[in-house]
Amino acid sequence: MTFIDSLYYAAVTLSTTGYGDITPVCQSARLANVLVITPLRFVFLIVLVGTTIEVLTQRTREQMRSNRWRNNVNNHTVIIGYGVKGRAAARSLVDAGTAHNEIVVVASDRSAVDEATRDGFVGVVGDARREVVLRDAAIERAARVVVATNEDDTSILVTLTARRLAPHATIVAAAREAQNMDILRQSGANNVIPTAESAGRLMSLSLLSSTAGEIMEDLLDSARGLEVSEREITRDELGQSPTDLDAQGQIVLAVIRQGVAHRFDTDAITRLEPGDRLVVIRHNEVDH
Predict the structure, then answer these.
(1) Which of 66, 94, 133, 267 is the most buried (most CB within 10 A)?
(2) Is 106 exposed, middle or buried (0-12, 13-18, 19+ CB in 10 A)?
(3) What is the DSSP letter of 99?
């Protein structure tokens, strides 16, 4: 047995690859096996093991980050669906001062969740009709839930599950058909927005009065012009009437007292009291 034979047997034994049915016989073939094939085997093993460890490490890191976020998040907003309605709702919340990490987007489409994470939000991939998916979004500790799916039957099932898991959260759902609004309310939605009918009314209003249509469009655009907002009264506003605020550049639409909303077309509120909240139309500060 030559030195090359000994080197070949040692290399095959140490690499634990076995000798197999086809083995090199001549000296040159065994030398090529030692100098070329065996190093390639080790490189393959290193790449294989390294890739496996990297994947496991990344998954562990993501799981730890997810668990840490889930343990610390509270009173956040869950947006179910990241289509046109979901993106608009997220933008409006951010414009109103909500932090990006306080908004969780749940969608079954991986590309939609990737888009949400690129926008700075927390993303959860899965079917929101499943309880385990909503629990991944920590919905039981959420303060607000936006149901912005594309189908009313899906919205009803999602609303039922969300209301059961988050009994104290404020749920706002979008309905494609007005006939499904009552069903969504019975399912647990606090407010239901008929998207198709609302768009139709806005279009007809713009046809009948272009100025009125422009004002409504301005109110719906949270990035410029006028906005509708709810706020607490200030100390200087105590004792004033809602009409006094109109002269200060804020149109009072409603006064909320002890959870009851008194609209501007009633005379129930003549003076503002501590604890009152106002729904007003004001100039958007973002536009300055």
Answers:
(1) 133
(2) buried
(3) -
Find the DSSP H helices in 75-209. 84-95, 110-118, 131-136, 152-165, 181-187, 195-208
More confident residue, 142 or 9: 142
Distance CA 204, CA 193 (A): 18
Write down the residue that tokens 């004792």 correspond to: 239
Residue 24 has pLDDT above 50, yes or no: yes
Cα dihedral 169, 112, 195, 130 sign: negative
CA distance 209 to 217: 12
Length of the chain (residues)? 288
CA atoms within 13 A on the CB side of 125: 8
Residue from 167, 145, 148, 152 nearest 107 by CA: 148
pLDDT tens-place string over residues 80-124: 999 888 998 898 888 878 888 889 999 998 899 999 989 989 889
Question: What values do phi and psi take at 103, rounded to 5?
Answer: -120, 125
pLDDT at 200 over 80: no
What lies within 8 Å, CB to CB, of 176 at 6+ separation is 150, 151, 152, 194, 195, 196
Phi-psi region of 192 (alpha: psi -120 to 50; beta: other; left: phi over 0): beta
The b/e string for 158-179 (b: 16+ C-beta within 10 A; e otherwise) is bbbbbbebbeebebbbbbeeee
